[in-house]
């Protein structure tokens, strides 16, 4: 390995950037050079945005979302339907549903899925918090909007069983052909679900 | 568009990350969530590394490299052969050559290539600085290591003509089949160069 090309500051910036998902060593170098080139328009503001995020972002103690306030913006939003609670795996799933703008509900972020092989049990997820919220009596329907993976569905069944005694209506997302999806590329499970739940024109 | 999911701080972080090369809106969201998850190990250090870079990184007034000192680490390195100067387009090309560790030379970063269509002329590049360095008399050989693109080669010829009167030996990189390259994927120009300059076993 050759001696460092530049001072340790640039090396460090490249190494840290390379740890972002989606960036490898080469793209981290490109990103670092881009940042240094766009010093005032990008490097300065991004550095500042990260400092603010580092200092101020907290996890909402109610729902598990991230925000600069606790409770988060969504939990504090009085225009949302407090009787509808959407259970998601991660904050990025919450963001995906919010971007779609289909619901004015509140959320509960589990922080993952049950995965015995990876040693993730119910106590590792924000499930106790969910039960506590449902016991509050305000929620009328819980939509379990976890991913349609094996672990996701296992988790959904576990939660549905757990909250069954709480007399809250529990629903889950429909399976079927994605809009724009081509049958040729879909797995058998999806095709079976789409056929089974076919609807009349 | 739905209302912002979280406070403006996170939105801003995502928007700035999306301006990095190699990251789009979706990967910028993933990167932001990853940063927030790895708050102490990654977000804090990266924020600090960017702050330091923003404050301290300068362009070397001798060679055009970037560093936290001027002259840069390479220009100050007394173990380098001062008689050999390698002309490159960009700092990332300089880094690529340094990573290969094949030379202990000094560099001259042009900052781009001549491109009449994009309005880039000789005065937009660090060419006057190159001539001045060569007039210093220390350099015995100039390797013009620009990219093998049309604009790169035009620039190489322009520079070679310009510095011809300075009685400095001027060389350029060889064309040929890249190591590990498959003939089927190479263009005709590369194949022609590789055939023409074929060597005896």
TrEMBL record, chains A, B:
Toprim domain boundaries: 83-178
Gene3D superfamilies: 3.40.1360.10, 6.10.250.240, RecR Domain 1
Single Gene Ontology BP annotation: DNA recombination
Zinc finger regions, C4-type: 60-75
Record's keyword annotation contains DNA damage: yes
Coiled coil: none
SMART domains listed in its UniProt record: TOPRIM
InterPro entries noted in UniProt: DNA_Rcmb_RecR, Rcmb_RecR, Rcmb_RecR_Znf, TOPRIM_dom, TOPRIM_RecR
Function text: May play a role in DNA repair. It seems to be involved in an RecBC-independent recombinational process of DNA repair. It may act with RecF and RecO.
HAMAP family: RecR
UniProt-recorded name of the protein: Recombination protein RecR
Organism: Methylocystis heyeri
Gene: recR
């Amino acid at each position: 390995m050759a001696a460092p090309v530049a001072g340790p500051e640039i090396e460090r910036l490249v190494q840290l950037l390379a740890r972002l998902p989606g960036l490898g060593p080469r793209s981290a170098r490109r990103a670092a050079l881009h940042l240094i080139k766009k010093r005032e328009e990008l490097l300065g503001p991004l550095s500042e945005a990260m400092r603010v995020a580092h200092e101020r972002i907290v996890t909402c103690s109610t729902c598990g979302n991230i925000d600069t306030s606790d409770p988060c913006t969504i939990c504090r939003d009085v225009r949302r339907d407090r009787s509808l609670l959407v259970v998601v795996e991660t904050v990025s799933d919450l963001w995906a549903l919010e971007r779609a703008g289909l619901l004015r509900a509140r959320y509960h972020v589990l922080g993952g899925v049950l995965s015995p092989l990876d040693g993730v049990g119910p106590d590792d997820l924000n499930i106790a918090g969910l039960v506590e919220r449902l016991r509050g009596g305000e929620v009328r329907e819980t939509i379990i909007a976890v991913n349609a993976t094996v672990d996701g569905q296992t988790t959904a069944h576990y939660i549905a069983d757990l909250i069954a005694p709480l007399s809250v209506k529990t629903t889950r997302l429909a399976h079927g052909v994605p809009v724009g999806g081509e049958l040729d590329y879909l797995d058998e499970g999806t095709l079976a679900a789409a056929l089974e739940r076919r609807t009349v024109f």
